[in-house]
Design goal:
Layout: H1 2-26, H2 33-62, H3 65-88, H4 94-114, H5 116-132, H6 136-142, H7 150-162, H8 164-167, E1 168-171, E2 174-180, E3 183-185, H9 187-202, H10 209-228, H11 232-250, H12 253-273, H13 275-285, H14 296-308, H15 331-339, H16 341-364, H17 368-392, H18 410-432, H19 455-463
Antiparallel strand pairs: 1-2, 2-3
Helix pairs in contact: 1-2, 1-16, 2-3, 2-4, 2-19, 3-4, 3-5, 4-5, 5-18, 6-18, 7-9, 7-10, 9-10, 9-11, 9-17, 9-18, 10-11, 11-12, 11-17, 12-13, 14-15, 15-16, 16-17, 16-18, 17-18
Length: about 475
Amino acid sequence: MLNLISTGSNYIIMIMCAVYAISCFTVFLPSSEERQVKRMDRQERFMFLFHFICYGVLFLKTFDIKIVVLYALQAVFFKLLISIYGRFYPDCSRIMMNHICFLSLIGFVMLTRLSFDKAVKQFVIVVATSFLVLFIPFFMEKAYWLKRLRWFYGLVGLVFLASVFVIGTTKNGSTNWISFGGFALQPSEFVKIAFIFFIAAMLEKPAGFRSVCVTVLFSACHVVVLILEKDLGGALLYFVIFVFMCYTATGRVIYLFGGLAGGALAGKIAYSLFSHVRTRFSAWSDPWSIIEGRGYQIAQSLFAIGTGGWFGMGLTQGRPLDIPVVESDFIFSAIAEEFGIFFAICLILIYLGVFIHFLKIAMDIQGRFYKLVAYGFSICFIFQVFLNIGGVTKFIPSTGVTLPLISYGGSSIVSTLIIFAIMQGLFVIAYKGEEENDEPTSENTEEPEKNGGDADSDNDDRNG
């Protein structure tokens, strides 16, 4: 009976996820405020119905009352979070709130399926972080002086990143963790935020050759530290962020192609110098020949995705625990196995919807500094998704990067929620039409105008 319920619920879940994924793009179409609100309400109903069905299946699997309690706490919390944001920030992006909640709920469902204790721990971290970052949008709106702290971002970020050489611990082959009091912290997850602010502040004014060289030097130091820590995913993420932000700030194609060529050369050098790079490359190129060793993880990932097929095995019906570290780096494989490839594609579309929304904020906001910050976080978000999904599907070598808002990991979830809170602040600034370089003076006390356009487009910006 459970197999029938699990398999049947999968079709309902796929339909809801497909409608939600489509709505991620239809919200950008011109429409009335009333229609936009209905779209947001429909998204909210679908994600809470998805949450209810999944936890119902998980409860029927074990008849453990703890699952019901965890479900109720999550449902109440996320509904409360949406209400609080709507009250504190009437001009906030509701679709961004829906994306945060839906992706987080998918993560909690899979974590509860894989490890109840880790799901509880992740939920506690999300609750605490969500209330802590609640004030970030307000801070972003008022802190017009953020672009002045360029050297603070660069120096403090670099020191914090390099602190693992003194007080760091090794985990999964990389020395990029700090452990204290039973907690583990990954500095690179937080430094990437300061890194984006640093590049945006350095290139906020029309970038000359000197400022670009200084930015290149500091960025190279960040990447080198990450390479020495054997955090290859982090090094690649930082490098790509720098290349695309530098290209956006200068508009010079030479920086884009020069950066990509330099990255390819650096990858070849890393392959020659570091044995762990060669090991990961061999596990990617031919995992079947070393399936009993380093190729086991990626092979099991591919088995899981292939076994799930288009429509999935059904929640609780797969064998995701056969994949090492499935709850963090390879959680996408578990999702594809139990919910199906069709659901996985819809999930990718939702991530693309978030990326497009971030880019829209970058285009709408006034002020070069904030534009670069928004663009930097857009690249950071979508490239992290690419690294994770590309790694688990053998499209690229695995880099150990987590899937935003879904994978297990305190540092990852906290930094991602901070990024979304910053983007909410930038959305509020963009909607109110504030220019970040207009500091309050006695001569400039006029209320900022809202973005131009007709009433419908203003309503779209408010909701989207």
